[in-house]
Each structure stands twice: as structure tokens, then as C-alpha cells.
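dumping this here so i dont lose it
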């Protein structure tokens, strides 16, 4: 199984590199290099904005934890960076990246509460990202003359967002045990007892998600602010990059639309490691449609790639350090358990 996923990752990465090379050749390598040089040392600020976005997700995750469980902001931040690193370099994306966050903090907080809080934060993030994508697509549809295929993509994104929110409201109202019941139904007879135990844990997780709002009303404004801040910083990154490229501040709406298209590209092509090629090609298509030119889209994609690679290196260092420091993590876990007993 691991060989299959490794082969898939290699093939998708190779295809992405080939697509990237073709796109750069199409718009002109000299033009792309000149544009990237125009960004210059501004790339440092762009990388810093990327760090602030990780910080926003880390804050939201911490706020989703049920007391008396606590997680240091530095630990949550490191876990988010490491999870993003793993998700970016593997074809499984969030399927491995998100659990990796909880695994990273296993020595700092109990695994069960960490996973529950992470699941809740991901639900809230998904809803916020969907709302942003839909609003960006609405602006794109009303303000620009679009080719039929892109118009169709925008309409599908809007319809999918409406459906997502409708499903979310129905789930909160009915609170069905969908996943746990499905596990019990599909279980083979020889594994029924084991699956039943897993189903019970999943059902508990579902109940925690459904009742989160009623249990954390006071924290909701702060969590919403963190999620909105994540997206606002993304718009700020695009705004700054365009400013550096043009030498003058662009329209804020343009930066907003381009960031929403970036969110859409991220969602659709999450299985491509580092979104090699597809990010640059798709962004170039959108920038060409709205009159900025394909080269601007390619440069935006490459600048994002530089930011992602910088934080991927940081994540790799943190993962290596964590792997070498398990004894320290065990000592901290013992101390945290003693502190939890005192609190209780």
C-alpha cells in the first residue's frame, strides 16, 4: 500500500513538474524570472505572512479544546506547520496531514481531546473557506466576461457551497450518527466487536462536534476571528505580491478574487504534492481572464511555492527534532498529566 502511494506521489509530482515547465515556457522564462526578481526581498514578508496564517489556525485549534486540556500556542503552531508540511509533500494531503498535527502534540495534550478539537476546527475552517470561495466566484461571475468553462466552474463552486451549508445545518439539527452507523453496518462478522469499539469512539466524536456550539458559545467569536484572519492574511499576501510586481497597490477586490481562486485550486488539487504546476497553470488562466496577463498568474504561483517551500523546510526541521526528542516529550507528558490531576 505504501509503495502504491509513493508511486502515485512520484507520478503526480513528475506530471506537475512537466506542467510547470510547460507553463513557464509558454509565458516566457525570462519574463517569469524578471517578475520574480521584481518581488525581491518582499518574499521575506510573504513568508512571514504565511507564518501568521499558520498562527491563526493554531489559535483556532487551541480555542476548540475542551477544558481542562490546554495546549501551548508554540506547540500548536509547530504542529500546524508540520501537518501542512506532510500534507503538501504527499498525495494523500489532509488525510495524513491533519492526523499528523494531533500526533505531533501527543506528548503535550491527550490525543482524544486533541483530535476532537482538530476535527471541530477543520469543520469550521472548511465552512469559512467554502463561504470565501463562493463569494469570490460570485464577484468573478458578475464583474468579468468569462469563458464558458470557467463560468461553469464558478457556478459549480457556488452551488457546492450552498449544498455544504445546507448539509451542515441539517446535521446540526438532526445530529445523525452517520459515520459510526456506517462503520457498524459495513463491519465484517469476524471484526464486528473491534469495529463496534471504533464506532463507539466515532459516535462520541460526532456528539462532541454537534454540541460544540452550545458548549463554547463564548469562544465562537474568537474562533471565527481566527478563521477570518487566516483568509484575510491570504488576501494580504496576494495584495502585497501584486503591489511588488506593479509598483503600486492593486484593487483590493482583485486580490480577494485571486485568493479565492487559490483556495479553490488548493481544494481541487490537494492530492498533487506542493500543487506543482497546477497552481501556476490555473492561476495563470484566471489572471489572463481578468486582464492581468498569464505571466502574473505564473509568478503568483511561483511566489506561493517559494513560501510553501520555506515553511516546508521549517516543518521538516521540526519533524526531525520531534523524532529525536521523544524522551523529552514523554517527560513533558508526565508533567502535564500531573498538572491535569491537580486541576481536576
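and the seq i came up w/
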Amino acid at each position: 500500500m505504501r509503495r502504491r502511494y509513493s508511486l502515485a506521489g512520484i507520478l503526480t509530482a513528475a506530471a506537475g513538474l512537466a506542467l510547470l515547465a510547460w507553463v513557464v515556457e509558454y509565458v516566457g522564462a525570462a519574463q517569469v524570472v524578471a517578475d520574480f526578481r521584481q518581488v525581491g526581498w518582499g518574499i521575506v514578508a510573504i513568508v512571514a505572512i504565511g507564518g501568521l496564517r499558520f498562527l491563526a489556525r493554531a489559535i483556532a485549534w487551541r480555542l476548540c479544546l475542551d477544558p481542562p486540556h490546554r495546549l501551548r500556542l508554540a506547540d500548536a503552531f509547530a504542529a500546524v506547520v508540520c501537518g501542512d508540511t506532510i500534507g503538501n509533500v504527499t498525495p494523500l494531503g489532509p488525510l495524513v496531514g491533519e492526523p499528523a498535527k494531533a500526533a505531533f502534540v501527543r506528548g503535550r495534550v491527550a490525543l482524544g481531546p486533541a483530535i476532537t478539537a482538530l476535527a471541530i476546527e477543520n469543520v469550521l475552517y472548511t465552512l469559512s473557506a467554502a463561504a470565501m470561495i463562493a463569494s469570490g466566484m460570485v464577484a468573478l461571475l458578475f464583474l468579468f466576461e468569462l469563458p464558458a468553462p470557467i463560468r461553469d466552474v464558478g457556478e459549480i463552486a457556488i452551488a457546492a457551497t450552498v449544498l455544504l451549508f445546507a448539509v451542515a445545518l441539517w446535521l446540526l439539527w438532526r445530529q445523525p450518527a452517520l459515520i459510526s452507523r456506517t462503520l457498524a453496518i459495513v463491519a465484517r462478522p469476524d471484526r464486528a466487536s473491534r469495529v463496534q469499539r471504533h464506532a463507539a469512539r466515532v459516535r462520541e466524536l460526532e456528539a462532541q462536534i454537534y454540541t460544540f456550539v452550545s458548549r463554547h458559545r463564548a469562544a465562537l467569536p474568537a474562533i471565527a476571528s481566527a478563521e477570518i484572519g487566516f483568509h484575510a492574511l491570504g488576501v494580504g499576501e496576494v495584495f502585497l505580491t501584486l503591489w511588488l510586481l506593479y509598483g503600486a497597490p492593486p484593487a483590493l477586490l482583485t486580490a480577494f478574487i485571486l485568493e479565492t481562486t487559490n483556495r479553490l485550486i488548493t481544494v481541487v488539487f490537494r492530492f498533487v504534492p506542493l500543487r506543482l504546476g497546477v497552481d501556476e497553470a490555473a492561476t495563470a488562466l484566471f489572471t489572463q481572464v481578468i486582464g492581468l496577463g498569464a505571466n502574473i498568474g505564473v509568478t503568483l504561483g511561483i511566489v506561493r511555492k517559494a513560501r510553501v517551500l520555506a515553511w516546508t523546510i521549517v516543518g521538516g526541521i521540526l519533524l526531525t527534532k520531534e523524532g529525536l526528542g521523544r524522551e523529552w516529550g514523554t517527560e513533558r507528558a508526565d508533567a502535564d498529566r500531573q498538572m491535569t490531576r491537580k486541576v481536576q
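The chain has a mean pLDDT of 84.
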